[in-house]
Design a protein that fits this description.
The chain is of the alpha/beta class. It has a single domain (10-188), classed as HUPs (Rossmann fold). The protein is built from nine helices and six strands, in the order βαβαβααβααβαβαα. It has helices at 22-35, 58-69, 80-83, 90-97, 115-119, 130-133, 153-162, 190-199, 209-218, and strands at 10-15, 39-44, 75-77, 109-114, 135-140, 178-182. A six-stranded parallel β-sheet has the order 3-2-1-4-5-6. Helix 2 (58-69) links the parallel strand 2 and strand 3 (75-77). Helix 2 packs antiparallel against helix 9 (209-218). Its EC number is 2.7.7.18. Residues 12-195 form the Cytidyltransferase-like domain.
């Protein structure tokens, strides 16, 4: 059923999650509080369009996200991109969410991205259409706000039009604003974790225990 247009903004968090780790979880948790979101919809990519193929299969990555987010009532998992037989483009994901049988056209949606991903936005498929479909919230390190002067010219111009320093205003429209929020710095990367797993080293306290158990059970990320 479509979600109520009167609901608070819904965060949208997409990624390969190869594997999902505590840095991802902390970003989603802090975004929910900082931006006044009703919750976060996690959307694992099936076939990422702008990066190498993930090491784990789409269904395995989906299963790990479900395990990692279980028990948090503010988190839900969307399998739509894993089940789609096409490359995953963010603009198409948001168009799917805007259908009447999903979130609908009026629910405020907030796309969560990191600072590095935002700086690369002009390389994304139909990137300027993103602002017609969602707000964009950028996570940055505490004390290191986004350096607008360092952004590509087209993106800096877009920033000047869309930036908003009041996250509370996200609830007033379905899309079109840029906001930022500082998140606790956690030097964790999926690349680092895959290397640890391949070498047989411990990933304890980097991954949720349920995800570690799933990786062990299915022998994921091990060198052949």
């Amino acid at each position: 059923m479509p979600e109520s247009t009167g609901d608070r903004p819904l965060g949208v968090f997409g990624g390969t999650f190869d594997p999902v780790h505590l840095g991802h979880l902390r970003l989603a948790e802090e975004a929910t509080d900082a931006l006044g979101l009703a919750g976060i919809r996690w959307i694992p990519a099936g076939q990422p369009a702008l990066r190498d193929a993930p090491q784990a299969a789409a269904q395995q990555r989906l299963a790990m996200v479900r395990l990692a987010t279980a028990g948090n009532p503010r988190f839900t998992v969307d399998a739509g991109e894993v089940e789609a037989a096409r490359p995953s483009y963010t603009v198409q994901t948001l168009e799917r969410l805007r259908r009447a049988d999903a979130c609908g056209p009026q629910r405020p949606l907030v796309l969560l991205v990191g600072a590095d991903a935002f700086a690369g936005l002009p390389a994304w498929h139909r990137w300027q259409s993103l602002f017609d479909l969602a707000h964009i919230a950028i996570a940055h390190r505490p004390g290191f706000p986004i350096a607008v002067a360092d952004l590509p010219a087209t993106l800096a111009a877009c920033w000047s039009v869309h930036f908003c320093d009041q996250p509370a205003l996200l609830a007033e429209s379905p899309s079109g604003r840029i906001v930022t929020f500082a998140m606790t710095q956690m030097a964790i990367s999926a690349t680092q974790i895959r290397a640890l797993l391949a070498s047989g080293a411990s990933t304890r306290y980097l991954l949720p225990d349920a995800v570690i158990a799933h990786i062990d059970k299915h022998h994921l990320y091990q060198e052949n």
